[in-house]
Write a structure and sequence with these properties.
Blueprint (H helix, E strand, L loop, with lengths): L3 E6 L13 H15 L4 E6 L15 H25 L4 E5 L7 E2 L2 H9 L3 E5 L9 H12 L3 E6 L4 E2 L11 E2 L1 E3 H6 L7 H10 L2 E6 L5 H6 L6 E4 L1
Parallel strand pairs: 1-2, 1-6, 2-5, 3-4, 3-5, 6-10, 9-11
Antiparallel strand pairs: 7-8, 10-11
Helix pairs in contact: 1-2, 4-6
Length: 230
């Protein structure tokens, strides 16, 4: 069993083709997290912002401005997730790497105290710096809070040898080492994030969060998705 877990949620977890912030998807993800809290695991979350804007894709804008827009988008998702969780009676601490009046600053000590008190901690704003992905932010925050496991939520079963949507023969890896993931440049996390996880000897699990019980099953010790070992 895990004591403290960091969950990385991409913007895809919050939005759909109908709306960048889909209330149905938001409710589903909040309900999963609320159930996960009942597993006696301390849970922190890093939010992505790709449902609103992906900085790296806004090639017509200055990259720094585009990345800043992307980081602001992660705060919108963090605020929405906090509101939904609080509706479910879950205590939430929202911290942001970008100074905003709607969230507190990143404070690892306060975050750890909140986790001990069984609050959910939501980290938004990425790292506060351009040219850095929320994968890297997740690796940093996991290190700051002393997480046992970094969970990367996706909408596929785990890590594949190729894009499974384009190549039906793509192999699903059940287990990998961080060295393998880096050498093969597999779509686990970006290379900076993987290097940080290797340095911290942090275990990663990539799994499909679109299956409603997967998060709870993993927190109970069930092997799902792809395990990436240090």
């Amino acid at each position: 069993m895990y004591r403290r877990v960091l969950l990385k949620l991409s913007g895809e977890a919050f939005g759909s083709s109908q709306a960048p912030l889909d209330p149905v998807k938001l409710d589903k993800i909040a309900q999963q997290i609320a159930r996960a809290r009942d597993e006696a695991v301390e849970l922190a979350i890093v939010t992505g912002g790709g449902n609103f804007v992906r900085g790296a894709h806004l090639q017509e804008l200055d990259r720094v401005i585009a990345d800043q827009m992307g980081m602001l988008a992660t705060i919108l998702n963090g605020m929405a997730l906090r509101e939904r969780l609080e509706r479910l009676g879950v205590s939430v601490l929202l911290q942001s790497a970008i100074p905003v009046v709607y969230a507190g600053p990143i404070d690892a000590r306060r975050a750890r105290q909140a986790l001990i008190q069984k609050s959910i901690v939501v980290f938004a704003g990425g790292t506060g710096n351009p040219f850095v992905t929320t994968d890297t932010a997740a690796a940093i925050r996991a290190g700051e809070i002393g997480a046992d496991l970094l969970l990367k939520a996706t909408h596929v079963a785990g890590v594949y040898s190729d894009d499974p949507k384009k190549n039906p023969k793509a192999k699903l890896y059940k287990e990998l080492s961080l060295d393998e993931a880096i050498e093969k440049r597999l779509n686990v996390m970006d290379l900076t994030a993987l290097a940080l996880c290797r340095e911290r000897k942090l275990l990663i699990c990539v799994f499909d969060i679109s299956e409603p019980e997967n998060l709870t099953k993993i927190l109970r010790g069930r092997r799902l998705g792809t395990l990436v070992r240090p």
